[in-house]
Amino acid sequence: MKLRHMAAIGVAAGMWLAAGAALAGDVYLRGGLGFDRPGSAAFTDVDCSSTAPAALYGCGSGGDGAPYRSAGDFGTVPAVELAVGYGSGAVRFEVLAEYRPEFDFNGHANFLTPERRQSVSAEVSSVSGMLAGFVDLAELGLPRPGPIEPFVGAGIGAAHTRIGETTMTFPATTTTVPEGSRTDVAWMATAGVAMEVAERVTLDLAWRYSDLGEIRTDRSAGRVVWRDGSREPLPLDLAPTTARLAGHGLRLSLRYAF
């Protein structure tokens, strides 16, 4: 397991143990909205040397000198979250679910020289579930800036991500790459501030880094279409491709303690 996954597990486990040392606490429900900015990403072959099925990109370098790929970004990704939590003293822990509805990947392949048309687009969506732990720093005796209570946290779990058909548009042809889905290890780290806005109601504003693992297209039938109709469509038996979905974001949420 990668070092970052082990670190997230260690932080979450430590928070759970600390919570278990206290006897009394509050159960709460938290719901929120936010967005992520995954930044740049690149789709490449899982195995560039695959021939049956055929690798989409293959081994070697493209017109820009980089390995064959489709490079771009996912833009701004909306997120909806719902959590059930328990807080005692300085420690809170949650079972957290997040849904990221359809968002777009937009980029360019590098088979041709950079000035030629080779745009790439696809729709993606993701559902994740995590076990998360938080530490309210003011409860540890650190300075409290007025009514604001800073906190930090981490979580680990799984994400199921789906990508629809990928469309690759070249000067004379359009290539369609099959859709796909994958469940992978996911983790997050967060820091934010909380403020009580009513009895039993707390407003949270948090920065979050989320790593949702890999997005993959499945092995399946793709095709190449000549847009002028000069040739019959060419079927393709394509091997999987992959890209990573990770980035920074913001969350605004409300907690209601029972």
Can you characterise this structure?
This protein is mainly beta. It has a single domain (3-257), classed as Beta Barrel (Porin). Helix content is 7%, strand content 62%. It has one helix at residues 3-20, and strands at 26-37, 40-45, 70-73, 77-88, 91-109, 119-136, 149-163, 166-169, 173-177, 180-198, 201-216, 220-226, 234-238, 241-257. Strands 1, 2, 3, 4, 5, 6, 7, 8, 9, 10, 11, 12, 13 and 14 form a 14-stranded antiparallel beta sheet that branches. Strand 8 and strand 9 (173-177) form a beta hairpin. The chain is elongated.
Write a concise keyword list for the protein shown above.
single chain, 258 residues, mainly beta, Porin, 14-stranded antiparallel β-sheet, elongated
Quick rundown:
With 258 residues, the protein is mainly beta. It is 7% helix and 62% strand.
What number is the mean pLDDT? 91
CATH fold category name: Porin
Cα(first) to Cα(last) distance is: 38 Å
Helix content: under 10%
User: Could you name the ranges where pLDDT drops below 50 across 5 or more consecutive residues?
Assistant: 11-24
Q: What percentage of amino acids are in beta strands?
A: over 45%
* Silhouette: elongated
Count of domain modules:
1
**Briefly, what CATH class?**
Mainly Beta
Number of DSSP helices?
1
Radius of gyration: 22 Å
Q: Can you write the helix and strand succession as a string?
A: HEEEEEEEEEEEEEE
**Largest sheet features:** 14 strands, antiparallel
Please give the CATH architecture: Beta Barrel
Q: Structural class, from secondary structure content?
A: mainly beta
- The number of distinct β-strands equals 14
